[in-house]
Amino acid sequence: MNITLNYGKTTISFALHEKNYVGSLNPRDVPGAKNGPDAVRYALENPIGGPRLRELVSSGDRVVVLVSDITRPAPSSILLPPLLDELSAAGVPDSAIQIVFGLGVHRRQTAEEQARLVGEDVFRRIRCLDHDIENCRAVGVTSQGAPVEIFEEVLDADVRIATGNLEFHYFAGFSGGAKALAPGVCSRGTIQANHRRFLHPGAKGGLINGNPLREEIEEIGRMVGIDFMLNAVLNSRKEIVLAVAGDVEAAHREGAEHINRIFRREIEAPADIVITSPGGFPKDIDLYQTHKAMENAQLAARPGGIIIVAGQCGDGLGETEFGRAMIEGTPPHELIEELERNFVLGRHKASRVARIHRDHEIYLVSDLAPTIKEKLFVKNFDSVDTALKQALAVLGAEARVLVMPFGVSTLPYLKN
Fold first, then answer.
1. How far is Cα 71 from Cα 283, in angstroms, rounded to an integer?
2. Residues in contact with 44: Cβ distance below 8 Å, sequence separation at least 6, in sequence order
3. Residue 416 has pLDDT above 80, yes or no
4. Per residue in 119-166, pLDDT tens?
5. Helix (H, G, I), strand (E, B) or coil at 67
6. Contact, 245 vs 272, CB < 8 A?
7. What local confidence, expressed as pLDDT, does residue 42 receive?
8. Model's pTM, two decimal places?
9. Whether the Cβ atoms of residue 273 and residue 328 lie closer than 8 Å to each other
10. pLDDT at residue number 278
11. Same domain for 62 and 99?
12. Which is the most buried residue in 81, 164, 310, 367, by most CB within 10 A?
């Protein structure tokens, strides 16, 4: 049988014998809304946990809208026009609105990328700028001790609106909500202090209460002030299923319940081999993002099993410290030990890759340059077919293979 996975903006196929195939772990097949903009308008007209946006703002307010960057599949070009209509109905002129792309520690974007994300019409109407990690101002300190430093353009606004899409996040529980602010538009120091919490056993996919990292993100949101949120729930085809809007925590929880119903999937038993894809662009834009598929795939693989991940990585390795750690020659066990002694943002993901590789060997299929591949501690292949052939040679011709076509989004759990 032939199986096809999303790979960048195209697809990649491989052959799998039926005797090995135990199934594909897909999200529930939920249809997209008949009309995406109408779904967004409905959410704005029926906010959760608070008043309509037009009742929160006035004509004299300066408004900042926080928007996801190119590494996220948020349908900003669909979310923003109805949102801007709502602001206009409150008397807020376009000149009083700024769109700020939350980069976190990701690379800066080109004007063409910004325009593609928000749509040409919005790009012409509204000032758009990337978050500047070097231009942040102190607000205070969280109860867990993290310094809170936020991009000045965001702090100087009268009204802050968080937008984005909702999905599982392997250590923040879920994306969306206050995550547009923290880490979206924070300083490197704030992001590093917050991300250090991912060492806590409660920092995992699908968990909010008891997750110190997510709890701190929302504490930062309360400290700075997020006046309104608008998030989209997408299906596996990146279609809007529905939108949620309103109070940044109440609306987020409503959206998270929909994510649980669509993307939390049961498995009978761990597989010997898990073949996964992040789900295509932008989730596999670089290895820094592709790694997230490994996190969920390991939950479906037995100890000592093999994870084959197909991510195009058109932008290379991604974040600078992560890239350096992946190719500098540090043995995986040292990357793991190093994290516990000295947490460095960026290198933390390299240590996660090393930890997964220790328990489940990783085979990577990507378009990374040969000079990069030869320096990585994971094994590299030019096709899924060759990677699978090698995995079967190692684990035996009868090895059980599970396919996870949307590895970043799908959260496996074992049947009780």
1. 6
2. 52, 53, 82, 83, 86, 230, 243, 245
3. no
4. 999 999 999 999 999 999 999 999 999 999 999 999 999 999 999 999
5. strand
6. no
7. 98
8. 0.91
9. no
10. 96
11. yes
12. 310
Per-residue model confidence (pLDDT) at position 311 = 98
Domain at 146, CATH number: 3.40.50.11440
Q: How many domains does the chain have?
A: 2
Same domain, 128 and 181: yes
User: Omega before 147 cis (within 30°)?
Assistant: no
Question: What's the first-to-final CA gap in the chain, in angstroms?
Answer: 30
- The residue behind tokens 């992001």 is 191
Domain limits for position 309: 2-27+268-414
For 243, other C-beta atoms within 10 Å of its C-beta total 29
Rounded to whole angstroms, how far apart are CA atoms 88 and 122? 13
Q: Is the peptide bond before 405 cis (omega within 30 degrees of 0)?
A: no
Residues 18, 125, single domain; the answer is no
| Cα 197 to Cα 213: distance, rounded to the nearest angstrom | 5
Contact 253, 131 (CB under 8 A): no
Round to whole Å and give the CA distance between 11 and 5. 6
Mean pLDDT score across all residues of the chain: 95
**CA neighbours within 13 Å on the CB side: how many for 57?**
31
| Tokens read off for 199 | 């060492």
245 and 96 together in one domain: yes
Decide if 179 contacts 213 (C-beta within 8 A): no
C-alpha span between 63 and 163 (Å, rounded): 13
